[in-house]
Amino acid sequence: xxxxxxxxxxxxxxxxxxxxxxxxxxxxxxxxxxxxxxxxxxxxxxxxxxxxxxxxxxxxxxxxxxxxxxxxxxxxxxxxxxxxxxxxxxxxxxxxxxxxxxxxxxxxxxxxxxxxxxxxxxxxxxxxxxxxxxxxxxxxxxxxxxxxxxxxxxxxxxxxxxxxxxxxxxxxxxxxxxxxxxxxxxxxxxxxxxxxxxxxxxxxxxxxxxxxxxxxxxxxxxxxxxxxxxxxxxxxxxxxxxxxxxxxxxxxxxxxxxxxxxxxxxxxxxxxxxxxxxxxxxxxxxxxxxxxxxxxxxxxxxxxxxxxxxxxxxxxxxxxxxxxxxxxxxxxxxxxxxxxxxxxxxxxxxxxxxxxxxxxxxxxxxxxxxxxxxxxxxxxxxxxxxxxxxxxxxxxxxxxxxxxxxxxxxxxxxxxxxxxxxxxxxxxxxxxxxxxxxxxxxxxxxxxxxxxxxxxxxxxxxxxxxxxxxxxxxxxxxxxxxxxxxxxxxxxxxxxxxxxxxxxxxxxxxxxxxxxxxxxxxxxxxxxxxxxxxxxxxxxxxxxxxxxxxxxxxxxxxxxxxxxxxxxxxxxxxxxxxxxxxxxxxxxxxxxxxxxxxxxxxxxxxxxxxxxxxxxxxxxxxxxxxxxxxxxxxxxxxxxxxxxxxxxxxxxxxxxxxxxxxxxxxxxxxxxxxxxxxxxxxxxxxxxxxxxxxxxxxxxxxxxxxxxxxxxxxxxxxxxxxxxxxxxxxxxx
Amino acid sequence: xxxxxxxxxxxxxxxxxxxxxxxxxxxxxxxxxxxxxxxxxxxxxxxxxxxxxxxxxxxxxxxxxxxxxxxxxxxxxxxxxxxxxxxxxxxxxxxxxxxxxxxxxxxxxxxxxxxxxxxxxxxxxxxxxxxxxxxxxxxxxxxxxxxxxxxxxxxxxxxxxxxxxxxxxxxxxxxxxxxxxxxxxxxxxxxxxxxxxxxxxxxxxxxxxxxxxxxxxxxxxxxxxxxxxxxxxxxxxxxxxxxxxxxxxxxxxxxxxxxxxxxxxxxxxxxxxxxxxxxxxxxxxxxxxxxxxxxxxxxxxxxxxxxxxxxxxxxxxxxxxxxxxxxxxxxxxxxxxxxxxxxxxxxxxxxxxxxxxxxxxxxxxxxxxxxxxxxxxxxxxxxxxxxxxxxxxxxxxxxxxxxxxxxxxxxxxxxxxxxxxxxxxxxxxxxxxxxxxxxxxxxxxxxxxxxxxxxxxxxxxxxxxxxxxxxxxxxxxxxxxxxxxxxxxxxxxxxxxxxxxxxxxxxxxxxxxxxxxxxxxxxxxxxxxxxxxxxxxxxxxxxxxxxxxxxxxxxxxxxxxxxxxxxxxxxxxxxxxxxxxxxxxxxxxxxxxxxxxxxxxxxxxxxxxxxxxxxxxxxxxxxxxxxxxxxxxxxxxxxxxxxxxxxxxxxxxxxxxxxxxxxxxxxxxxxxxxxxxxxxxxxxxxxxxxxxxxxxxxxxxxxxxxxxxxxxxxxxxxxxxxxxxxxxxxxxx
Lengths: 733, 733
Fold this sequence. Notes:
Chains A, B: It is a multi-pass membrane protein. Chains A, B: Keywords: Membrane, Transmembrane, Transmembrane helix. Two copies of one chain form a homodimer. By secondary structure, the first copy, chain A, is mainly alpha-helical. Chain A is built from 24 helices and six strands. A four-stranded antiparallel β-sheet of chain A has the order 2-3-1-4, sandwiched between helices. Chain A has a two-stranded antiparallel sheet with strand order 5-6.
């Protein structure tokens, strides 16, 4: 990380952000200059209409940089106040903001994340709701390439420097991330942290198991499943807890509308009486059903590819015995590495289209639906190969291999005068499964790290170097777009131009990575108990490289809020549940040593296999309930905080009401007199009069007048009791 | 129901309740008269201390009847106000009660149920919380036999009369029940109603299936499972919905403390700062683990009994062929009918003790824990016999029968000179399963009905007749306990004395019945599709007989509140899930006609069986999620109501805050001037001065001062664009 400083190319001034809230990167395609210019005017007007100060500067070739800063603090504060009220109404905040704004903001100051979030909303939300309604890259704003805040270099550097020395993230670190990049990002790091901490156990235990129990130990499988349950249930609670501590519990209730949402009609909301744009849930349901064929397509395409490459590989590596074997065996790997990315990017595109088709009102719903589909894709690409080896190749290999002759025949076509190809007797390769798991849990992780973290930085350095040359060439004829920058802005503008070039940071990608990793641990680590160790190391680096990614290789993210890791939670649950099944199956198949059934299913008592699966699964379900119950019993700081807030709120309200109530209360003072009917002269007279008029009041009245007050009742009661006694004695004799 | 009037033996006056809120039945054991008398005095004092008027009258032999009525309406209103505030604080009510009490109570009058609930709380809750702290039959109040409200005969009669003619309960009926007997009872009837309505489908479909598909049809099984899922998920929503409509959503949060709770220490609540009595959750957890051995004991005892009776029966009915066969075959049935009740009452006692041991703080938690255990018991007694037939007798009969020779040998002992017993060749009886299911789903239900509904009434009539004679004898020497009743009270006192004799009504018993019934439908109806019809009829009667039970054969229940059917929900879920497994298994075993495997497991491909179970179960889980999702999409009156309330609340609060906010807002009026930095003479001078002092302000200031206001920005932007264009043209050439 020593190279940080020159990554940021710290010329004086590049540190400062010149108080800019958001930079708008505005493209001007040479062909459509007129439209672009018109739209530009609108842009500036829209911005200033909602109270932004603006500055414009030349961007890189064919683009402008518009700098926006909220004009007056009071305007910002009004926003803050308004949104905090909303939070309170939705039950996110337990107390309403204090009317005295100045005092209030001194008590609960505005974090940078909050400021940026609100200003972003001010820029993007529709005019109707008092925003500028600027939606990057869509509709009339198609020239607006991006709206992004500027990195805080000083902070980023300090942050990464600290981490590179620190072993784990503590509350303070998370709080910092939260204040800078918002809860959504903070939740990712919180998850990563507590997942990595939990990894310590499977790492240690896995090492022990590897040394003492070897592979495919039922005991390891058991403990591993148990661990995954505990982790899952723990996180569910931890998540809720963090949400409360960060004061974002229930923010998912406050939904951001999707600008792309298309209503199929308006109806008057029976509740609010407002006319709202609606989309029939049944139409959506119908479209959601498309997920089924989508999943099938994925299985067919990806599954087909993987399976066939798998077959070819087996043929070449374990049957074929001719020339160029060592080169040919690489063929399937090459095929996969080339085709998988192509196909999955195609399918991801399909998923995106499908999700758009489902046409959700809110951004969260949209994101969740998309994640579902992405998860299906990743499930296939990540786990299918191992599934094939474990549950097809190993048990049925010998049966299936004969069908691989097709390759032989096709191969013969190409060989001269179709002489048959030299082959060797097929033998199941018992190490294949282990090798594969190791590949996915170690090699793949490392490769991935390079692709994700190192490559971009290298790229960036290279380009930046090129650009330096470029700009120098230019600066003779002045400025990137032929205009000289003011000397004391140059450095600043340079860095902005650079940041404008970076991609957006997408947290879902990082989540996906972690979830898939968890999957390997839950599903297959029984094959190779060291998995945990590998992941532990990987994640230590992962946390840092992700930080670097956010800080240096991507635009600063918009600091959105979140109250959970969202749809990924279900994925975790699903994987940990599936783990109970696969582990059981693997343990059963390979119960006599790592060789397992030698490619012929005859050896396997399928009913026993199914029984063990059935058993394992239900054991899992029971254990999960128990763990859930037990963990639920523990008290947690966040929940405590919430209880405290609710309590104080109740107390306050009750005190307001109390006064009254006491007033009511004292009308029936305690003491024996309490229940007594006040016998006043009037009453007696009244009674007398009633008698004189009609007999003696109603039976009910008389019933209640027989004993005047408690004292009477006690007296009479005593008499009755003694009479009872008397009667008993008489009956005795 | 024509006999109603004389069931209530309507002498004039027995209709009226003399405005009594609660009757306290006070026992005076001859031996402990002194203590009883002392306690009596305390009782009356305690009552009058919290504002009750009291009257005392002789009860039946050796008992007093204390009549309590809340002394002043204002005192009652204070209570109402206080508890409604509490509801509001806990989010049960969305709006705080209006300060003007009179007006408020005119808007939201006090229902009879509410009045009775609050007065009961006033009597029973501890002195510390402002109650009289009277806990019947425990501690110093051990002479207080019962504290019960009086039935409203007029209402009850009308109620039952209406029902006996009506086909189904509508909202109005439920609302009435709710106002009289509280939500807890109302929820039972609501559940019964919607369950019965849902039964129409399996009844009709079952009939069709029975006619067309016969028994063990996979299609019936499929539809039946689907139905049970839909019903379960529907009820979950319906329940929440009712809770909202009845304004009790979340009352389960307001917990009633258990007087029997024993704390193992005090700790200061970190939240409220109060010292609260606590009981370590881990101790409790440890004790809860006792449920496992408890379940095992139940299985062993009951299971053992059932299994052995089952074996004997088979031996006698299908092997033994000697004398007295027809009588002997009754033996096992006799054994069961005698022993099962004994054993299960013993085990229920055990369950009660266990639950007390678990020592819960709140009544709900206690009840829930108890229900769990009861469910285990009922599960065994109700379903085990069928399980044995279906999954032991039918598939393994032939294998197991040889072991039944033990009976033969033992029998030989007793027969003269041990000559062997005449036996016949064992043949699986294919009708046994069907017969058994029919027995449990028809015969048992009818028997149960008589035991539960008819018998008590008959008993009651008999006793009441006897008592009449008794009392007449007595009245010569005056009154039941040797004292004459005032003539215009006599009738009233008589009825009170009668009601004092009745048992308490326990809704859990009725729930248990329905849940067990649902179980038969979900688990075994594939054996005999007519099950649905039988239940439909049964429930029509059940609803009425339950009503009669509440109205006439039990004390009026304390009208507690509830926001769901509580722990029974889980039982339903469990049964409907288990149903998917059993149905699949049954269909598989009996797929070739109702004879199924003829007692020898050889015929069964166990892996296929397991596979079909595995498949069915997971299909079930998927379907459940889908149904849950789909039903969740539908809008419901209750939820709508809630949304409406929340909305109006938000609106009100927002309006309060709004004024302010607008004030804030206008400081940044819209229009181009909006973002503009006000350029005043002062500013210019200031600027000039700065220049003269030190160069030209900070780079940041200068950055933002280059373009004064949006108009400037636009201007400069335009220039830049055109320059861009110029550059492009030059580069083109």
